Amino acid sequence: MPHPPTTEKLESGSEAFKRANQAMFVGGFATFAMLYATQPLLPLLSSEFGISPASASLSVSAGTAALALMLIPASVLADRSGREKVMKVSLALAALIALACATVNDFSQLLILRALLGASLAGLPAAAMAYIGEEVSPRAQGKAMGLYIAGNALGGMSGRVLSALLTDIGSWRIALLTLGLLGIVSAAVFWYRLPPSRHFQARAASISRIIDDARHISRDAGLPWLFLTALLAMGVFIGVYNYLGFRLLEAPFNLSQTAIGAIFLLYVVGSWASAFAGQLTDRFGRRKVQWVVVMIMISGLLLTLGDALVLLIAGVAIFTFGFFATHSISSGWVARRGQERRGLATAIYLTFYYLGASLIGSMSGFAWSLGRWNGIAAVLGLCLLLLLAIVLRLKKLPADPA
Question: Which residues contact 246 (CB under 8 A, 6 or more apart)?
């Protein structure tokens, strides 16, 4: 049962705020470590199962697409049953499915389990931003959201690096088994550290209420545009990392699987960027920061066109910084503008976010087939220009609702 509401929210520096940040960081870490574990293995899966690069990328897209489809139902459930309960059950169930992924006999079985993994994970991101919006003081929400996204970034990095390293040492089955065990440990920490919800108010899960909330959200001056930023930013980000491994396997780089996995260490830049962007947002405001970090994404993508490895790594690092800063700002803005409908608003935002990962992330594979990395950069560059136009429009929004 939810605790009775109280006027006190979690303030920066308090013990409860620290516990909440630790739990949300670990939850975000585990979510992304499990969700993207197969990404550095795409060239290997393509070879082992005799499938195309675009088909191999479905091992990532199956999870993100299922997650996207389940976010709104998970959000409705969290509105009815409570953010805390839904997040805990979601993370524990996903960890068990992650363990099962190591036992598959063929690629179709892997796709089914990866889809179930994504569907199970939906409860945590569907409720996490709403939990922060409800339980954390407005003065500290930027920091809390930044740390949650930082956990996402570190989890995404660690899952990919461990997956590549353990595959080289043993096999991809050992890699997926290890990440499932990591998910079990993370779920235990999350259950123990997360402070109980004290501001949650259950809302009826009726169809009429959901339709009414969706109508209000669609009429907001900023929310629909913020949803599009999620689709474009995440789609471009996954497009870059999905096919980066294929490029690094070829001349002039010819890197090993472990070396390719090490490229994902650049996620640590994203982990720092999201927390830093949260602090900048609290200080200067979203409108003054968001368009700048999108420009950083564009600059980084352009640098990846060079054939020097150091230049490519620098470009991916800069691009990664810009993406996580962009996501941190946009997701926090959605939680702010959503007000009492923040649960559904954040679920819609994340639906667009993961649809971008699935659609742009996989479809850009056709650009690889046609023009290799230059084709990828051209398609994703057009998406970034559209993203820039949207955030410049958002810069002109009137003041957010109180």
Answer: 42, 43, 53, 368
| Cα–Cα distance measured from residue 258 to residue 163, given in angstroms and rounded to the nearest whole number | 9
Condensed to tens digits (0 to 9), the pLDDT of residues 303-323 reads 999 888 889 999 999 999 999
| Backbone phi and psi for residue 10, each to the nearest 5 degrees, phi listed first | -70, 120
- d(CA 17, CA 232) in angstroms, rounded, equals 32
The total number of residues shown for the chain amounts to 402
pLDDT tens digits, residue range 70-119?
A: 988 888 888 777 888 899 999 999 999 999 999 988 899 999 999 999 99
Q: How many Å apart are CA 39 and CA 56, to the nearest integer? A: 9
What is the chain's percent helix, strand, coil content, to nearest 5? Answer: 80, 0, 15
CB 243 within 8 A of CB 373: yes
DSSP conformational letter for 251: T
Tell me how far apart the alpha carbons of residues 297 and 264 are, in angstroms, rounded to a whole number.
16
The dihedrals phi and psi of 136, each to the nearest 5 degrees, come to: -100, 140
What's the burial of 307, exposed, middle or buried (CB within 10 Å: 0-12/13-18/19+)? exposed
Question: What is the value of pTM for the model shown?
Answer: 0.72
Q: For residue range 203-256, what is the model confidence (pLDDT) as tens digits?
A: 666 677 778 888 888 888 889 999 999 999 999 998 898 888 888 887 788 777
